[in-house]
Amino acid sequence: MKIGYRTIKTAIGTPIAIVIAQALGLSNFTSAGILTILTIKPSRKQSVLSAWHRLLACIIASIFSFVFFELLGYYPIVLAIMFIVFIPVTVLLKVTPGIATSSVITLGFYSAGDISIHFLFEQFFIIIIGIGIGLLLNLYMPGNDHKLKQIQQNIEDNFQVILKEIALYLREKNTVWDGREIRESEILLDKAIELGEIDRENHLLRSKHTYYDYFVMRNKQLELLRNMLPLVTKLPNHDDISLHIASFFEGLAESVRPENTAIVFLEQLKELRDEFNKEDLPSTYEEFETRANLFRLLHEIESYLIIKKRYKESDVSLLRHFRVKKNR
Description:
CATH class of the largest domain: Mainly Alpha
Number of domains: 2
Structural class: mainly alpha
Order of helices and strands: HHHHHHHHHHHHH
CATH superfamily of the largest domain: Putative aromatic acid exporter, C-terminal domain
Largest sheet: none
Helix content: over 70%
Oligomer: single chain
Shape: elongated
Number of strands: 0
């Protein structure tokens, strides 16, 4: 069984918060540990938001507790009325994640039976200690670069296989392929997007994340590859059109990489379109259906390439520069 970083941080932070609160002589010191547990989240962004929600909710709960309990008394019915008023206020202020935390503070006030200024300050220090320890521990977040890089390589390998199998089918009508790489890519992309989202939230001052954006782009492309498969099966056997498209898919397969070379293939696709437009108009229903499927396929390929083109700035000029330099 693997123990995660969040579990380790919770195990370390909870007793530290309790020890600090106890050392300061604060009553209800165990609440500091509970606050630490509730503050530690999977990412820095979630932890900061959690801390803000809980801090504001606790302050509101402290004010409400003082007003309701001191004015109306320390009775269960008063506690119920307070929650009836308090919870809608947290919803209005959009700090509902802090309800559980503030409930701990509220019950502490209720159990005390008397709320003095000294006790209010004690509870405030408990809030600061519990939330503060959780935030400090969440400053350390392990990087996922190695995992994301490995998933990226696996997805690119799968995309190469998918594109090559499409080309092989167009050339030989090979139906042996079981489509395993498509299903595997779906699972990998779901995992990668989740990891990428967490990694992105760990960089509070960065709005974009290279890996996250990359996997979102590949996820859209995978959907288009699925759309292409039934269209490919409807193209005729061993004619010039099928062979040209097969060569095109083979070129795409060889160029599956993080760099953006989509503009090169969009130019080739335009040339293919121009070439196909010179063909004679279809004279039978079968030829018309084939031509329609062909243009639908070209549209899907174009969409596939446009997604990559928009993903990042083109690397074509840079790659050409390195090739020229290497040839020298």
